[in-house]
């Protein structure tokens, strides 16, 4: 069975340019790691561990660390007159925001379901200061207006307030009093207390009865590996997948290539599964005629 926690927002993407950007991001995230081949034809990243004295965090550092534990989805967007920002509210469930750290620098990324925009940021006294961002270059068609408005809002300074709860809520107010309210969902890395390894799967539109239990429908998947230029270097065999992919909705109409984060589960995990799989990005999606 397949998890349906996230709307599919990417229709048909051209593979080479997006894949190269995807692989570049993987390479950045996996800097200073060693790679070991595994049975699935992918690579497992093993990072050298070092011990150090406990670090005393400032209030800003604690807030930054807490923000990075969640992936934020837009709940409401209102202008200075408290009127809905229609372009964003019409697609609010696919407008997302995340915080991370790369090479010691705080980084923010956001998207309306097309391009992903990344920018460095600073945080002081709950004032978020975002620098000019870098974006992928896909054509967004009817998402262009929403993307431009979100990008304009995110640039510069905004006041933020994080309210604990289940789920937590992040309120962001720009200097022109436009307000975005975000709902947080814990990231896989925070949930599984581990850094996932990046793998790529092709997923067929068609499902088949599972070999171990014919009463259930299994996804048909095969692992794929690419080099740094986005050129396919290895492709496995189609096989049944009986588990779930967090954040992925299989509609039976598209052949897709997915970038996933795979997390090793503890031996005492109640699911008895070896790994948890989390959707990172839909790299390619094509309609099956």
């Amino acid at each position: 069975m397949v998890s349906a926690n996230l709307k599919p927002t990417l229709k048909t993407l051209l593979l080479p340019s997006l894949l190269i950007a995807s692989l570049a991001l993987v390479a950045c995230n996996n800097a200073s790691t060693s790679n070991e081949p595994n049975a699935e034809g992918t690579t497992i990243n093993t990072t050298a561990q070092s011990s150090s004295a406990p670090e005393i965090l400032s209030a800003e550092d604690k807030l930054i660390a807490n923000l990075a534990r969640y992936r934020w989805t837009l709940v409401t967007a209102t202008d200075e007159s408290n009127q809905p920002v229609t372009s964003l509210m019409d697609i609010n469930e696919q407008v997302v925001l995340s915080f991370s750290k790369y090479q010691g620098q705080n980084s923010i990324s956001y998207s309306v379901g097309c391009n992903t925009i990344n920018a460095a940021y600073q945080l002081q006294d709950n004032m978020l200061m975002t620098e000019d961002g870098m974006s992928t270059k896909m054509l967004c068609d009817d998402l262009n207006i929403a993307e431009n408005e979100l990008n304009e809002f995110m640039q510069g300074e905004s006041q933020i307030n994080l309210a604990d709860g289940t789920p937590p809520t992040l309120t962001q107010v720009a200097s022109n009093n436009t307000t975005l309210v975000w709902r947080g969902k814990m990231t896989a890395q925070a949930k599984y207390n581990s850094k996932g390894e990046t793998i790529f799967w092709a997923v067929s539109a068609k499902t088949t009865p599972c070999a171990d239990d014919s009463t259930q429908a299994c996804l048909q998947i095969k692992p794929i590996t690419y080099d740094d230029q986005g050129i396919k270097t290895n492709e496995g065999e189609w096989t049944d997948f009986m588990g779930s992919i967090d954040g992925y909705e299989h509609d039976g109409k598209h052949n897709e290539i997915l970038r996933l984060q795979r997390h090793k589960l503890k031996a005492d995990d109640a699911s008895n599964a070896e790994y948890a799989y989390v959707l990172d990005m839909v790299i390619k999606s094509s309609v099956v005629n």
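The first helix runs from residue 15 to 29. The chain has a mean pLDDT of 81.
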